[in-house]
Design brief:
This protein is an alpha/beta fold. It folds into 2 domains: about 110 residues, Alpha-Beta Complex (Aspartate Aminotransferase, domain 1); about 240 residues, Type I PLP-dependent aspartate aminotransferase-like (Major domain) (Aspartate Aminotransferase, domain 2). About 35% of the residues lie in helices and about 20% in strands. The strands form 3 sheets. It has a 7-stranded mixed β-sheet, sandwiched between helices. A 4-stranded mixed β-sheet has the order 1-2-3-13. Strands 11-12-15-14 form a 4-stranded antiparallel β-sheet, covered by helices on one side.
Length: about 375
């Protein structure tokens, strides 16, 4: 395999709920969750049952035909969001590609060819394809892949003044993450997203929200935008949407529907009967079995425990996050803490070098959280300041 990932030196062979085991039988409590993916945990019986039952009926027929699981999933997503239409694909990057293509095509049809620029945020992350890489505002991720696609303009996150200054007659859309995940678990200022929504409305610019990491209950609401009193024009989902299945989705308002007519966009494996049957079971469980409420309650509990650690140790400079998307900003590189946690049976990860990120399954409980907090407490005691 290409060495494109900095892998930990363990091989995982089994999972159950919030726990995984390596090839030697060692148990770990998982606070990475497939990077905010495994909302219902590992080896979810709900998902396994849905996949098994659908695999005996129909696996793939192409999008030349309707299938029942796909249309049912689209209906559930529409009924529980701002949107009227859904496009299914295979990943968050593909969903973001679809969103940007839709925005450009719509704006050119409505306003003319000069409307094509998409404003994006410094420190953002939208994917690894050439278009989503071009929209990503992190130089370390972009290094070596130029020339990038034209038509992107980068501005600071949480700065309405810069947004206003960046808008001219060439801008068709703004794309941003309601909470910057890979950027370090960075939350918007209280009125920032409302301000962005109002500016976009004033200039007839589309607002694209990338909820690939923050959506599907992660923040304690089904979608992160629901915390901020706004509605986007387009939203993208992936990760927890499928609990490990390869799926992405782009959701949009009805007025944009005609822009993506027959032949305008497509995906061979986007929303197959097998995948959407599994995803439908995941989404129904999130909506009906209390896991979003659990994310909110356990997120508050977890965050308070992290704040208590911050009060004890000066190495911790900030506690960030919402729901079960949390981060600890350190005054130094966090790699050693990640490795020590792994040695002691806990999986966490570090982003932006100094932010410990916690995105566990939404089924996590106080027992698992307390065990991690005790582990972190012991590790921080051992660190020489």
């Amino acid at each position: 395999m290409f060495q494109t990932y900095k892998r930990s030196p363990i091989t995982l062979v089994k999972g159950d709920g919030c726990r995984v085991w390596d090839e030697n039988g060692k148990e770990y409590i998982d606070f990475v969750g497939g990077i905010a993916v495994c909302a219902l945990g590992h080896s979810s019986p709900i998902l396994s049952k849905a996949l098994w039952e659908q695999s005996k009926k129909l696996v793939h027929v192409s999008n030349l035909f309707y299938t029942q699981p796909q249309t049912e999933l689209a209906q559930v997503l529409v009924e529980n969001s701002f949107a009227d239409r859904v496009f299914f694909c295979n990943s968050g990057a593909e969903a973001n590609e679809a969103a940007m293509k839709l925005a450009r095509r719509y704006s050119k049809e409505k306003f003319g060819p000069e409307r094509h620029v998409i404003i994006t945020m410094d420190n953002s992350f939208h994917g690894r394809t050439m278009a989503t890489l071009s929209a990503t505002g992190q130089e370390k991720i972009r290094t070596g892949f130029d020339p990038f696609l034209e038509g992107f303009r980068y501005i600071p996150f949480n700065d309405l003044g810069n947004l206003k200054s960046a808008i001219d007659g060439s801008v068709c859309a703004v794309i941003l993450e309601p909470i910057q995940g890979e950027g370090g678990v960075v939350l918007p200022e209280p009125d920032y997203l409302k301000g962005v929504r109002e500016i976009c409305r004033e200039h007839e610019i589309l607002l694209l929200l990338d909820e690939v990491q923050v959506g599907m209950g992660r923040t304690g609401r089904l979608f992160a935008y629901q915390h901020f009193g706004i509605k986007p024009d387009i939203m993208t989902l992936a990760k927890a949407l499928g609990n490990g299945l390869p799926i992405g989705a782009m959701l949009a308002k009805e007025e944009l529907t005609d822009t993506f007519g027959p032949g305008s966009h497509g995906s061979t494996f986007g929303g197959t009967p097998l995948i959407t049957a599994g995803v439908l079971a995941v989404v129904k469980s999130l909506l009906n079995d209390g896991w979003i409420e659990n994310a909110r309650e356990m997120g508050d509990y977890f965050k308070n425990k992290l704040i208590n650690l911050q009060q004890k140790y000066s190495i911790i400079k900030d506690v960030r996050g919402l729901g079960l998307m949390l981060g600890l900003l350190l005054d130094r590189d966090g790699t050693d803490i990640v490795n020590t946690c792994m040695e002691r049976g806990f999986l966490i990860n570090c982003i932006q070098e100094r932010v410990l990120r916690f995105v566990p399954p939404l089924i996590i409980g106080k027992v698992e959280i307390d065990l991690l907090i005790n582990c972190l407490d012991e590790i921080l005691k051992e660190i020489k300041i």
